[in-house]
From TrEMBL:
<dbReference type="Pfam" id="PF15919">
    <property type="entry name" value="HicB_lk_antitox"/>
</dbReference>
<dbReference type="InterPro" id="IPR051404">
    <property type="entry name" value="TA_system_antitoxin"/>
</dbReference>
<dbReference type="InterPro" id="IPR031807">
    <property type="entry name" value="HicB-like"/>
</dbReference>
<dbReference type="InterPro" id="IPR035069">
    <property type="entry name" value="TTHA1013/TTHA0281-like"/>
</dbReference>
<protein>
    <submittedName>
        <fullName>HicB family protein</fullName>
    </submittedName>
</protein>
<feature type="domain" description="HicB-like antitoxin of toxin-antitoxin system">
    <location>
        <begin position="14"/>
        <end position="88"/>
    </location>
</feature>
């Protein structure tokens, strides 16, 4: 790891069985949990695995979007909670 930490915005929404977590910069990356704590933990693991898969497939890792950009572009999304998930990555990030 290069030691640099990247923070990705995630949205947590209530579901019938608990919560779902989605990532703005990684549309196919989702996870869930019965509690908020479990959802955040599962979300971080899902994001790490998603990025590892992208690295294996030689895909570029997106630069974290700013919260301001997300709020401006995703006016229809109303998450219960919006948090940052911090990760370290191996490869340079893709420029927007």
């Amino acid at each position: 790891m290069n030691g640099k930490v990247y923070a990705y915005v995630s949205d947590i929404v209530k579901s019938k069985s608990g919560y779902n977590i989605l990532f703005y910069d990684f549309p196919g990356c989702v996870s869930a949990g019965k509690t908020l704590e479990e959802t955040i933990k599962n979300g971080k693991m899902a994001l790490q695995m998603h990025i590892e898969g992208m690295i294996e497939d030689k895909e570029k890792i997106p630069k974290p979007s700013s919260l301001e950009k997300i709020i401006k572009e995703d006016k229809d999304i109303k998450p219960e909670i919006r948090i940052l998930i911090e990760l370290e990555k191996l490869l340079p990030i893709k420029k927007h």
